[in-house]
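ok so I'm stuck.
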Amino acid sequence: MTFTREKDFGTPAASGEPVSLTIDGQELTVPAGTSIMRAAAMVETDIPKLCATDSLESFGSCRLCLVEVEGRNGYPASCTTPVAPGMVVRTETDKLRKLRRGVMELYISDHPLDCLTCSANGDCELQDQAGAVGLRDVRFGYEGENHLEGCKDESNPYFTFDPAKCIVCSRCVRACDETQGTLALTVDGRGFASKIAASQDEDFLSSECVSCGACVQACPTSALIENTVIEKGTPDRAVVTTCAYCGVGCTFRAEMRGEELVRMVPWKDGKANHGHSCVKGRFAWGYARHGDRIVNPMVRSSVDEPWREVSWEEAIGHVAREFRRIQNAYGTRSIGGITSSRCTNEETFLVQKLVRQGFGNNNVDTCARVCHSPTGYGLKTTFGTSAGTQDFDSVQHADVILVIGANPTDGHPVFASHMKRRLRKGAKLIVIDPRRIDLVRSPHIEASHHLPLRPGTNVAMLTAMAHVIVTEGLVDEAFVRERCDGDAYAEWAEFVSDPARSPEAIEDLTGVPAEDVRAAARLYATGGNAAIYYGLGVTEHSQGSSTVMAIANLAMATGNVGKEGAGVNPLRGQNNVQGACDMGSFPHELSGYRHISDGDTRALFEKDWGVSLDPEPGLRIPNMLDAATDGTFKGIFIQGEDILQSDPNTRHVAAGLAAMECVVVQDLFLNETANYAHVFLPGSTFLEKDGTFTNAERRIQLVRKVMEPLNGHADWEVVQLVANAMGLGWDYTHPSQIMDEIARLTPTFTGVNYDVLEQRGSVQWPMNDAAPEGTPMMHIDHFVRGKGMFVVTDYVPTDERTGPRFPLLLTTGRILSQYNVGAQTRRTANVDWHAEDRLEIHPHDAENRGVRDGDWVSLRSRAGETTLRARITDRVAPGVVYTTFHHPDTQANVITTDYSDWATNCPEYKVTAVQVTPSNGPSDWQKSYREQAEASRRIEAAEPAE
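replied:
not stuck anymore, here's the structure
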């Protein structure tokens, strides 16, 4: 699209009863509660404004939006004055023009006169409004006291604050408060001395600012401006697309100047983000042109040899020949593939199709194996489908919010801001987490209950809460009777009622006082609409699937399914992990979660694809690695996943990869897995392709190509090249054709196509004849499986135990500024906030070991050892340590074990017995890795990819 600003109505929309009024002689009807400013904008009458914007509540400070209202004295601000029946408004009179010019004169008299050289020239609201009010000169002169000598704050790597250009309209402060919820900005001082300050008048980088960009977006001048705009100029066109980071699925306007991306601006019409963003989505896109990008295919005969650049034709031909050779030598099931949760639905669908149609087996898996595969198993068993129940907006109707095993402010920050808005309005919060996450206590928010349980005891904790709900008569009996399987409920209720499962009985096990557990259970059951949000702290356990089912049991027992403000909602980690699962990326399921053994489903695909499909489930990722070390699995196609860094027990992963004869990696960078690859096929970023992503709320959204791919091909085209080299004869010319095939073969997608997505912006599956508008909320009248299924979830301790050699429990997680294995974010300025992984350790444990803050420590488990620096904090309890896993030089997964979920093989990342001891510094291999990384950063700074 060409570049035009999104229309700003000045104040938020209202939803009251219809009210009729007249503005400048034009009659109109708007909802009660609508401001005069917004009503005028709805009939294309733009009232001048500076402090008003429709993403923030009315403020009324700039006095530029004055209007005349018949029958009223004075000149009310149109932004703070609601419409009334029969109201007659005039927005343009001689008196109003004079008043507005006078107000604007005061602003301009204290503003630099550098419009022609200003980076925001032509894209500045102050400049526009000066023209709108007809200001041509300033009577007051520019010689008096002013603020023009303020020093720029250039500490933040992504934006600059120039106080000389600030008009103290408070839009940035209000955006930080209302939109982001961090409350990091304030107006410091009074009267003429007023100024915008970050935290305790610190620079932006040192302050509590989380660099979400809401303040920059809200600023009507160039006081807060993106550094890329300063460097490249203002954009001249824009393309709406979808973010490729977390599972929130924010929609952005990618604003371009020529073929260069200038900035990413969150789109107000984005149904998942409503015009908000985080530091990653808004600013951390520079990796797309990083000097580390591999843009030409490479081949080598052995991993001991150097890479050799080749043509696409040679690389694809080599892959096809090697895979055929291996299958001829070792059998049909000797090769497989891994789909990427960072790639589009269409691309993941093609990879699983390549494996099933081309390889002739079901050896396909995805990163959900190591994150949310228990969600699929647990929710399908209890509810009938493998996905969350609500849309994100549902949280605004919640009275009680239970967050377990998730850290939304770091992992899903835009949704966290949405949630915090509801909490500030009075909703109650329960947090179940071994660590004191930010939500436990932050500005204007405090959890009613924080249950800091011992890692690995989720099932015992949830069963104890269920014990309270059943034995104290808090069950919604009408819901259970009408909506759930009665026999299953009776068995479950008898099980949880056992005194051995009471909060008192499990207090020593979980480490949480029984009275706290009882109080939290009562609040969840009786506090009104109750919603559960969970993350990898639930699924990445040996009892991950059991915990998901225990969560579903609680929701069903209290009737908190199928209504607004309730439900069970997994917070998906990667941008398209939901979509990758939907597309049939598991070895036992075709798209739409239909088992490969089902003859009717298989026949549908066989007819469409013209082949016979293997009815036997294939190998999961850990099974592929096991088979490789056993000598029976010899080749793999890995699309956009770095399993050597992300999967557990790094040594075992390395051994499996080393045993294979043809490892093909398709990615942006030479990741850790590529150290064991024989073929490297360069990938494309989300900015370089068309397609769709599906977020954590089942929302399908378009990804639109912003720029041409550096490697010459979108990822789906690369998969098609491999397929055709293996004789499959695919002839797709656009991803929309792939989606048409998905819809043809997948009952929950039958109504989805690109035309619908273009018209509506997004839809939520199921979307079919039974749900032609899509499905924002699942299980309203009945569960997908019919009757909800209660499942007995007995607590089974993990085999990973602490002891004299390994007395501490390690758990892992993410941080706001970094993403997953860091392949993208480490190649941006986000490293300014998180340049290395640190080990959080309680002061008591640190003192016992002679460890001081910042010291290097050795972290050892039964599986391996690494070194990193310590951060002493009471965020973790005594006996628990915590680290992130974003930096490959830390190799956190050298420490994790082979223990996994009983149902899905999801690794038990969250419970590893370890010992921590002082160290002299990083190991030799870590030093070497860091030196190479620093050299790479220097090269990139001088030679960006072209």
